[in-house]
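Sample entry (159 residues):
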Amino acid sequence: MKPTFPASGQGDILIVDDDLPSLRLLSDLLAEHGYEVRSARDSQTAFMLVSADPPDLILLDIEMPVTNGFQVCEQLKRYPESRDIPILFISARDDVHAKVKGFEVGGVDYINKPYHDEEILARIKTHLTISRLQAALVERIDQLSAHHDIAQAIPGKTS
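Predicted structure, serialized as tokens:
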């Protein structure tokens, strides 16, 4: 889990969408609100960006050529360096089966196109907050576990 976020911004977001106009609109919106934004128009570029420097959150279109968003999500969830990154699907598909599949493959949210700026900003903020809190909790558990291990190693000392 990536526990730190840029001090100067709201977080690092990777947008994966093969539709250039959608990609630009979303990138501009997020950049205007203080997010560091990177983009990929295909799965191969997305995997390269994630492995080079994992983002704090991924916005992932479902309908893409070669590898669809569900497949990209499944692959990202297989690796320790990317499995905890929140993935929000963005799609024009409004059927319940697509939404359920998005959650089954590891997505944390599903946003329909066309989206409302306020809605997408609120969802991103919420999922980044949850991710930060989870990272802080894991860190605290690790600290307590290390403290407990040290206390157990001292003869006659119980925690």
